[in-house]
Design brief:
single chain; mainly alpha; two-stranded antiparallel ribbon; 23 helices; globular; 81% helix; 744 residues
């Protein structure tokens, strides 16, 4: 790469890993507390790692099988990129590795956070947040570092491999516009492995954590009347393990995939937008890599700005966190403008406008999520008030809040998409290629400060586990007050993080759908289809020179085409079917947990009396087995849907499927995540002493609402983010099959 700005990316990736190691090392040096605190932390850590080992065993088998299929398609049928089997394996591995590093850090940090809370709230916040930053920096460091390595590897190794395997690795003139298009779309296949691993991590982790949570709440709180995280509850260790499995490993893999996908889509669309100008084409490819690199550096600065004073309430804690995130966001606005001017890209201010549009969209979605899910605002308070009327009114109120919460995110993503398109296209709506490049750049802008925004999300389960450890260790009320303050902020940051993840998924999926057409162009040329026939008596055009509009005309991608309409319905159906399967999976796994906790209480009366210990390991094993068994079918649907639709209905059907899945999946994900978050915080609002407090009728009703919301906010909702991106990635990597073997 001859463009100097390109080298910002590898430098930033290395810095991210250096600071992640520094924060991890600093955390390891902190006091772990008493022997009992260390023992409880060890139970959680062992359970979490046991789950990951089991999940990775299953994923290893899946990866081997899928990679073998890709190898057959690439090396025998020659309908896939020869790099796909290799990039698929690496994408899956590094997505899993990011989750593993985050899990290892979180399970070690929670005990140390509890120990620090015995003396100081500021020190406890520093340990918890910087440990969360390890996750954030590892995700962006591994993600951006991998992309840089793959760009360089394919660029340098491609010609050598052509000499050895001329049929498999085509030779393309490096100076032609088609070369960078081929290079970027080839690296785009890295996202396939990352997406599949992310879906398994999210679905499996979500089922695990909510099966344990529901079992612990229904039998422990409602039936036995014991407090949350009480050591007498057999499911409490499994519950704490689940926080790490779902919200650390799962979220890390999810956003690793979003981060890589947004950058890769922007690179591919940039190469396509400037295919006739090789100089500007390289700048368009390098720009998203440079913006991501600058974002990493500014995220590191933001992490150091997050600090608070002793005795801070939730508002002050949220303010401390917002300070770090907002300053990083403000600096990226300035830094990206400078970078684009130095780079000298065409319409630099328009591209910068797209970056800002993405950033603002992310902030608006985050603030909207906080408003609808935080106990400081009226929507959640209204659910708490409705709990006085019983479980039915609690559920009705929560569903209503969740539905209303979709308005602002949908408007924000819609407006952000239109503005980024107009800015990048120079307000010329006919300039489709550069406009879609702007949409992809907006997704990069939204995720540019992922290093610190993901830190705020990974911080949540660390604080939650710290509170659980304090309760189970019998520490004093002043310690529990500090951990409760951290935990309360963690609930809000977790809900905000989920909203951010959903918004970034929507923009990334839009960019991936646009990239799909560019991959079709390459696969058509490979298949010998060098000319596009256009309907309506229009003259044919060369495939290499065809515009996006030409492809839409050729494949008749219009709302008047019944194939497109049917495929849109199918896409919406997939989103609801997937959600239904994951919710039912949680229900089945939770039923097993409920029966086990009841069995232990009935067979050993000493557990509730505190004279004998419950069997924690049995509950951990039940959640592990249930999650592994239940995650397979929903994950297969996400992979199978675009392949089958492509084979039956062709390219037009696939585009309709992706649009239907994106539109329905995005709105459904917002509804599920926000309604679940609002139910959860309504319960905590009542537990703080409102409407009768703990053990009141309102509290029991709110626990029912929270239990219903658990699979909504921690399983189905977050998993939909990956579903809509994974379907796009699968469609992209299977374009060769679709173009060659489609029935229509």
């Amino acid at each position: 790469m001859n463009e100097p700005v390109f080298w910002i990316a590898p430098i930033a990736a290395i810095l991210a890993m250096i600071f992640a190691w520094r924060f991890f090392s600093d955390m390891r040096k902190q006091d772990e507390g008493t022997e009992l605190m260390r023992t409880i932390g060890s139970h959680v850590r062992v359970g979490a790692m046991a789950y990951l080992r089991q999940q990775y065993k299953i994923m290893l088998g899946v990866v081997i099988v899928v990679a073998a299929i890709f190898a057959f398609l690439a090396y025998y049928l020659h309908v896939q990129s020869p790099w796909l089997p290799i990039t698929f394996i690496f994408g899956s591995f590094f997505s899993a590795l990011a989750g593993y590093f985050g899990m290892q850090t979180a399970t070690l940090a929670s005990t140390r956070t509890t120990a620090a809370a015995r003396d100081s709230l500021p020190n406890a916040l520093r340990i918890a947040f910087r440990s969360g930053a390890v996750m954030g920096l590892v995700v962006v460091g591994l993600g951006l570092g991998n992309l840089v390595v793959w760009f360089l590897a394919i660029d340098q190794l491609g010609p050598m491999l052509h000499e050895v395997f001329p049929a498999a690795f085509p030779d393309i003139d490096h100076d032609s516009g088609s070369y960078l298009v081929l290079l970027t779309t080839t690296v785009l296949t890295f996202g396939m492995g990352a997406s599949l691993q992310a879906l398994f991590a999210r679905v499996g982790g979500g089922i695990y954590t909510k099966a344990a949570d529901v079992g612990a709440d229904l039998v422990g709180k409602v039936e036995a009347g014991i407090p949350e995280d009480d050591p007498r509850n057999p499911a409490t260790i499994a519950d704490n393990v689940g926080d790490n499995v779902g919200d650390v490993a799962g979220m890390g893999a999810d956003l690793f995939e979003s981060y890589c996908g947004s950058i890769l889509a922007a690179c591919a669309l940039g190469a396509a937008a400037y295919v006739t100008d090789s100089t500007m084409q390289l700048k368009a490819v390098v720009a998203p890599l440079g913006i991501a690199g600058i974002g990493i550096m500014l995220s590191i600065i933001g992490v150091f700005l997050v600090k608070t004073e002793e005795g801070a309430d939730q508002k002050q804690l949220l303010g401390a966190l917002a300070k770090g995130i907002n300053i990083s966001a403000a600096l990226i606005v300035v830094a990206s403008a400078i970078l684009l001017q130095v780079l000298g890209i065409d319409n630099a201010w328009g591209v910068w406008g797209a970056v800002v549009a993405g950033l603002v969209t992310g902030i608006v979605i985050g603030q909207s999520t906080e408003y609808y899910t935080s106990a400081h605002y009226s929507p959640t308070k209204s659910i708490a008030a409705a709990a006085q009327g019983g479980a039915a009114t609690t559920v009705i109120a929560g569903i209503g809040v969740g539905m209303l919460s979709t308005v602002i995110p949908v408007l924000a993503v819609g407006l952000g998409t239109i503005l980024s398109f107009l800015f990048a296209s120079g307000f010329d709506v006919s300039n489709m290629s550069q406009g879609l490049y702007g949409v992809a750049i907006a997704a990069v802008g939204m995720l540019s400060t992922l290093g610190i925004t993901l830190a705020s999300d990974a911080y949540g389960p660390i604080a939650d586990n710290a509170g659980g450890n304090a309760e189970m260790s019998g520490l004093g009320p002043e310690v529990r007050n500090r951990t409760d303050a951290l935990d309360s902020m963690g609930n809000t940051t977790a809900a905000t993080g989920k909203g951010f993840a959903i918004g970034s998924a929507a923009l990334t999926a839009l960019a991936l759908i646009a990239s799909y057409v560019e991959v079709i162009r390459i696969d058509m040329i490979k298949a010998g289809l060098t000319e596009l026939t256009l309907h309506g008596g229009m003259a044919p055009v060369a495939t290499a020179d065809a515009t996006l509009v030409d492809f839409m005309i050729h494949y008749n991608v219009t709302l008047l085409n019944p194939i497109v309409l049917v495929a849109i319905f199918l896409g919406a159906m997939v989103a609801f079917t997937f959600s239904g399967l994951t919710v039912q999976a949680v229900g089945r796994a939770a039923q097993m947990m409920v029966e086990e906790v009841r069995r232990q209480f009935q067979e050993d009366e000493g557990i509730l009396k505190g004279t004998s210990d419950p069997d924690y390991e049995r509950c951990v094993a039940i959640s592990t087995v249930g999650a592994q068994r239940e995650m397979v079918v929903p994950s297969l649907i996400a992979v199978a849907a675009p392949v089958l639709v492509g084979l039956i209905f062709g390219v037009a059907g696939v585009i309709g499927l992706l649009i239907g899945g994106l539109s329905a999946g995005f709105v459904l994900a917002v509804f599920l995540s926000n309604s679940g978050g609002a139910w959860d915080n309504a319960k905590k609002y009542i537990e703080a002493g409102h409407h009768g407090g703990k053990s009141s009728a309102a509290h029991r009703a709110s626990v029912i609402g929270d239990t219903i919301g658990d699979p909504f906010k921690d399983t189905s909702g977050p998993s939909l983010n990956i579903l809509i991106k994974l379907m796009s990635i699968v469609a992209i990597v299977m374009t060769g099959v679709t173009v060659t073997y489609s029935l229509m």
